Write a sequence for this structure.
């Protein structure tokens, strides 16, 4: 069993219930991971994913090895048949097989480069590990998806929802750096499995991959989208059509207290890290409606559920 996409979830409601159960007694399965090793490979920086996934593994009694490929590992080649006479020192073929001998589960973080859309959509790093590793793979944010984050988001919304069918708004917000679409892609895929009124709001031109958004409702007027919302999930993404570019930095899209007044006393969510007073005002982020800290806390239980399922699957 791998966990590289929201598509790997067979029943979101069952997974969310199980994660909430784990949260109540996180050390219950402390023996499950005894003598098993999680290898965490980072091709990009992290705070939450690194610590929450490590914490989840420790709660299950696993050993954890972390390797940062940005400054520790050899530069890897991912193309089959490549003539390796330039930058890369090692092919994914050997690297993945070797790491598989040391680890029972491999977790990988490898962001989109945001230069070559086709290459990013091919998920060359994640696909390379899926192809050549001989142990299960967990996606800690790839080029096109962040399924551990989306699972934590689903847990958080289940905990905080006050109606059976809440209105959930995913809102684009400005950002000074070009960011990938991975978080919102997985959030949208997860929302498509939920019984909720779901609306995506973003400036015209910021449409995401239609293979992901499918028939999800898009509203270009942010104020209109916010009306009576129960949850506001803010996130920036760079332009998908003019790939990887920032073509809008309109501060009117920042989530402010005035905008939150349009909602049904909505909870505010963001995956973090968040740029204060760019994505969201201090007033909103510091308000009691902000649930970003608990959202980050749930990263541990999302990861623990995934690791637990993989460990049990291998028994
Ligand atoms: N939300 C998230 O993935 O945080 P990190 O980038 O800090 O891991």
């Amino acid at each position: 069993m791998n966990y590289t996409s929201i598509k790997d979830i067979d029943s979101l409601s069952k997974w969310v219930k199980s994660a909430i159960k784990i949260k109540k007694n996180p050390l219950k399965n402390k023996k499950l991971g005894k003598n098993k090793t999680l290898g965490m490979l980072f091709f990009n920086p992290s705070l939450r994913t690194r610590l929450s996934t490590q914490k989840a593994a420790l709660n299950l009694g696993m050993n954890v090895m972390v390797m940062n490929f940005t400054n520790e590992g050899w530069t890897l080649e991912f193309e089959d048949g490549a003539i390796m006479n330039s930058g890369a020192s090692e092919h994914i073929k050997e690297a993945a097989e070797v790491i598989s001998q040391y680890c029972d589960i491999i977790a990988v973080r490898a962001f989109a480069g945001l230069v070559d859309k086709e290459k990013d959509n091919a998920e060359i790093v994640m696909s390379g590990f899926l192809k050549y590793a001989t142990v299960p793979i967990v996606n800690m944010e790839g080029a096109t998806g962040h399924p551990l984050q989306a699972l934590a988001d689903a847990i958080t919304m289940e905990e905080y929802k006050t109606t059976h069918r809440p209105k959930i708004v995913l809102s684009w917000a400005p950002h000074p750096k070009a960011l990938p679409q991975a978080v919102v892609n997985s959030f949208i895929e997860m929302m498509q499995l939920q019984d909720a009124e779901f609306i995506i709001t973003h400036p015209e031109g910021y449409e995401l991959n239609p293979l992901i958004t499918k028939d999800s409702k898009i509203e270009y007027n942010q104020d209109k989208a916010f009306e009576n919302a129960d949850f506001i999930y803010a996130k920036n993404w760079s332009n998908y059509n003019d790939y990887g570019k920032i073509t809008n930095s309109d501060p009117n899209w920042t989530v402010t207290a005035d905008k939150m007044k349009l909602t049904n006393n909505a909870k505010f969510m963001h995956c973090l890290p968040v740029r204060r007073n760019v994505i969201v005002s201090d007033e909103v982020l510091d308000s009691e409606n902000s649930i970003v800290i608990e959202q980050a806390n749930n990263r541990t239980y999302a990861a623990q559920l995934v690791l637990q399922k993989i460990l049990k699957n291998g028994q």
Remarks:
- Residues 46-49, 141, 149, 271-273 surround phosphoric acid mono(formamide)ester (CB under 6 Å).
- The chain has a mean pLDDT of 97.
- The first strand starts at residue 37 and ends at 42.
- The chain has two domains: 6-145+299-313, 147-295.
